[in-house]
Amino acid sequence: MALVAALATSALYFHRSAAMDDPSLHPPRQLQIALGQTVREFIQVNRLPIKDGHVDAPDRNNYGVALDVIADTGPIIFGDHWIAPMILIGTQRIDLPAGRTLFIDQEAGRIKSFSFTPNAKAQPLPETNRLVKPLLDWFLTHGWTPKVANSVTFALTDDDADFKRSGAKILAQLNDGQGNLVELTVTNLAKIPSQVSYLLVPAPPRPVHLVPVYVIDIGFYWADRNDLSYGDLIFPRRIFVHGSKDQILRLRPWVDDPDWTPQQHGMVDLGGTGEARRWSLPAR
Fold first, then answer.
1. Are 41 and 65 spatial neighbours (Cβ–Cβ below 8 Å)?
2. From 56, 86, 130, 163, which residue has the greatest number of CB atoms within 10 Å?
3. How many angstroms separate the CA atoms of 9 and 26, rounded?
4. How does residue 197 score in pLDDT terms, banded at 50, 70 and 90?
5. Whole-number average pLDDT of the chain
6. CA 143 from centroid of its chain's CA atoms
7. Are 215 and 187 in contact, with CB atoms under 8 Å apart?
């Protein structure tokens, strides 16, 4: 779900950029990010401001995070910016080419996955292939191995069956040996939806591409992303603050106290597993 949303977000901003001042004409902003990192640390290490206003309102000059708008399970989206990401996974540092969008999937204030679209604009397939190959070569020569043997695609053609069927092609899914995953996807921009359901800004007109153009998406997935369910942290903290697991909590409490647990606050575990795990407030 996060990958689909990220691809659609990328397409929206690639469409929009043609009609607005292009941020890629200026030096990129470096953002350091790590799998499993707390949002608090991500904000601090990058010296990001806290953003006021609606999270979906695009602002190319503001890299702030709207802590009082983003939900406890909501994405952090840097859309239509110009970003040079420095990615830390274990002992590895990965510097990617600058690109427009960074889509961060966080839960309870911890980064579970993120995806990035390198390049300043969508490109015809030959240029896309020329960018993809060195990316794949880097991962394959730094200990990352295919999730499925012989499943890496180094070059694509416009007639690829996946493009005709869905508009997207997964080139590679690679593991680092510690359970972390990277996934490289190429999408035909003309095939992606022109509007994303959770973005409230009007959709720009869809351009008519005489020649198909493509967007690269690089997704990173934390090895421990599925270790905790909503019933372990999200629901009990909502109950602790609001008295109901169904009333959404915003991101700010998880940034203020990223190590919060129900046990340390005296909540009573009533049993159950996963999302069915039940909690009660501590006795007064």
1. no
2. 163
3. 22
4. very low
5. 84
6. 23
7. yes
Name the strand (E) or helix (H) holding 9: helix 2-17
Which phi and psi (to 5°) does residue 269 adopt? -80, 115
CA–CA separation, 263 and 272 (whole Å) = 15
Query: What's the burial of 188, exposed, middle or buried (CB within 10 Å: 0-12/13-18/19+)?
Result: buried
Range name among 7-16, 88-97, 149-158 with the lowest pLDDT average: 7-16
Residue 248 CA, chain-centre distance (Å), reads: 21
Burial-class residue 106 by CB neighbours within 10 Å (0-12, 13-18, 19+): buried
Amino acid at 166: S
Beta bridge partners, 245, equal none
Q: Kindly report the three-state secondary structure assignment for every residue of 46-76.
A: HCCCECCCCCCCCCCCCCCECCCCCECCCEE
Asked whether the beta carbons of 217 and 117 are under 8 A apart, the reply is: yes
Q: How far is it, in rounded angstroms, from Cα 243 to Cα 160?
A: 52
Residue that the structure tokens 């999302």 belong to: 275
Output the pTM of the full model. Answer: 0.84
In contact, 146 and 174? CB cutoff 8 Å: yes
Count of alpha carbons within 13 angstroms of residue 94, beta-carbon side: 25
Residue-level pLDDT at 266: 93
Cα-based distances in Å from 260 to 103, 209, 257, 274 = 25, 50, 6, 18
Cα atoms in the 13 Å half-sphere on the side-chain side of 1:
5
Residue 31 to residue 48: CA distance in whole angstroms = 9
